[in-house]
Structure to design on (583 residues):
């Protein structure tokens, strides 16, 4: 099979996947980047170069919304990194304990929120946190903390953090599963060797297991990053396209949706929408590159 | 196992932490389900109580059945998910076979090209995808969604399946070749049955995001007759915000199919994740 000429059956095998992928994913992706360089006046498409980006970053009406959405998006990501991933790792560490009973039950139960749609999650939490229904205040008063209750989703200063925590609640199962898999793949001999040297319990986790699962933590971080910077559904179901109160929960996904489709008095503008999509593409690309070239190559991988 | 790693106190703490988190994970689902079977008064008076003879009511479900076309939404979701999965698996397996089996010029490059989509979300191209669907007249058809989900699922499918196909014995395929089987027969009759577990993993990974997606149904197929269950319940709940019985019942109906799928496939899903298919 040395001949480098492509045989007909290779083409037949590759063609459907390559065609669908190119036509529906790659071509529209580049077409969106291209559309960001155009604008429309009197239903005629005109090439304007980087004008849309100048508006997006320079015109205060646009740039304020853009930086607001970007900053919110970063906060959204930070909460996931600080809350979701440590909880996921902790749960996985407990679950991977040998001889733990009911491990399969806990694993399946904790993964349940991850399989629910954003629509279910968004509305369910909206109802639970609603001051009208009173489940959240009742639960807080049961532990004597009623004074802490506030209509979190309706307050500008809490809404974004609350939504980020809801999203954490939903997705904690993913880091848990991936880390759990990584912990299981650590061979028994390594841990036993540690025990011989007197390293057990928490010390074994910090000194032996954690360094060995760092590559998985890296993968989780980049998955979280890409997922967060392309999030939309939860904010849309819980707060609507306007990402209220007063845009305090606006992230790039909702900002792009509003710009593209329009809302209330503003007409939809596919070209500005493309410009925002291009910015999102850039941010995700930078994140992925930092991971691939800055982090992944420096992490030591151990082969057993 | 030796004693160093066994400590009864630790075991109690471990179970305590896991039970606490399990409660946190299941509590919202539980609250929604029990309250969907209660009268409006009981929902507000005793939100955490189980429905009893006095408070039991199906009024919410009756409203949902009368007002929303949930059977149609369910059918749409089912068609979109099943057909997309079929194309992802068929096209993905074919491409994975070509990449892992044959050496040809551009093989590595083609692999990288197809892998690009693993990290870049397809949503970035939404503006142009809508443009494309408008031009081809596919807006408000289930076909538009099927095409998008197929394209979205292919990169990871090709990646995972080609890993597995490399492990299929070379001798088996060569034996087939000596017996005069065509390359197509070798693929469909010899290789596909052997990678069935990997195909199941890919299917389960793709199933949940496709079923739950809100973005593309909202943009590409918002018409009444093409609404998926996710979009349908979103719109329905949005219209009935003040009718708590209806909202809770609609949420419960949306939870039901996913829970059934999860109960059927959870073992496959968890085995897929833990076998390192996504490493």
């Amino acid at each position: 099979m040395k001949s480098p000429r492509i045989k007909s059956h290779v083409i037949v095998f590759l063609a459907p996947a390559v065609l669908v992928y190119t036509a529906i994913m790659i071509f529209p992706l580049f077409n969106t980047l291209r559309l960001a360089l155009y604008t429309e006046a009197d239903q005629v498409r005109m090439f304007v170069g980087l004008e849309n980006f100048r508006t997006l970053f320079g015109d205060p009406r646009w740039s304020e919304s853009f930086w607001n959405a970007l900053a919110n998006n970063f906060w959204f990501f930070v909460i996931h990194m600080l809350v979701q991933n440590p909880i996921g790792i902790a749960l996985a560490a407990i679950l991977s304990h040998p001889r733990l009973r009911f491990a399969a039950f806990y694993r399946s139960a904790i993964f349940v929120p991850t399989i629910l749609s954003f629509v279910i999650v968004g509305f369910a939490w909206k109802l639970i946190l609603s001051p009208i229904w009173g489940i959240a205040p009742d639960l807080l008063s049961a532990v004597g903390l009623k004074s802490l209750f506030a209509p979190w989703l309706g307050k500008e200063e809490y809404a974004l953090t609350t939504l980020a925590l809801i999203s954490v609640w939903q997705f904690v199962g993913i880091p848990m599963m991936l880390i759990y898999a990584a912990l299981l793949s650590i061979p028994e001999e390594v841990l036993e060797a540690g025990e011989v040297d007197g390293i057990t319990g928490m010390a074994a986790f910090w000194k032996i297991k954690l360094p060995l699962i760092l590559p998985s933590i890296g993968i989780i971080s980049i998955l979280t990053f890409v997922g967060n910077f392309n999030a939309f559904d939860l904010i849309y179901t819980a707060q609507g396209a306007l990402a209220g109160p007063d845009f305090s929960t606006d992230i790039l996904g909702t900002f792009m949706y509003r710009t593209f489709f329009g809302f209330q008095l503003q007409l939809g503008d596919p070209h500005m929408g493309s410009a925002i999509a291009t910015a999102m593409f850039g941010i995700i690309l930078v994140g992925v590159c930092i991971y691939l070239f800055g982090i992944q190559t420096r992490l030591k991988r151990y082969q057993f | 196992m030796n004693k160093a790693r066994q400590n009864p106190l630790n075991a109690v703490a471990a179970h305590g932490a896991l039970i606490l988190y399990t409660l946190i994970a299941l509590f919202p689902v539980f609250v929604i389900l029990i309250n969907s079977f209660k009268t409006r008064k009981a929902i507000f008076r005793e939100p955490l109580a189980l429905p009893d003879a006095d408070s039991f009511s199906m009024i919410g479900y009756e409203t949902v059945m009368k007002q929303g076309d949930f059977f149609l939404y369910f059918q749409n979701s089912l068609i979109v998910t099943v057909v997309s999965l079929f194309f992802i698996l068929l096209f993905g397996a074919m491409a994975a076979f070509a990449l892992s089996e044959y050496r040809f010029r551009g093989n590595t490059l083609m692999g990288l090209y197809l892998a690009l989509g693993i990290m870049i979300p397809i949503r970035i191209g939404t503006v142009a995808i809508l443009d494309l669907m408008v031009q081809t007249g596919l807006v408000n058809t289930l076909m538009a969604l099927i095409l998008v989900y197929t394209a979205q699922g292919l990169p990871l499918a090709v990646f995972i399946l080609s890993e597995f196909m490399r492990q299929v014995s070379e001798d088996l395929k060569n034996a087939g070749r000596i017996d005069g089987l065509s390359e197509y027969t070798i693929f469909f009759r010899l290789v596909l049955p052997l990678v069935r577990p990997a195909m199941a993993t890919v299917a389960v990974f793709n199933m949940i995001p496709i079923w739950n997606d809100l973005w593309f149904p909202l943009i590409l197929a918002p018409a009444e007759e093409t609404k998926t269950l996710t979009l349908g319940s979103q719109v329905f709940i949005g219209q009935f915000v003040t009718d708590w019985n209806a909202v809770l019942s609609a949420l419960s109906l949306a939870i039901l199919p996913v829970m059934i799928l999860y109960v059927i496939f959870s073992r496959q899903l968890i085995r897929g994740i833990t076998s390192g298919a996504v490493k």
Chain B has 13 helices and no strands. The radius of gyration of chain B is 24 Å.
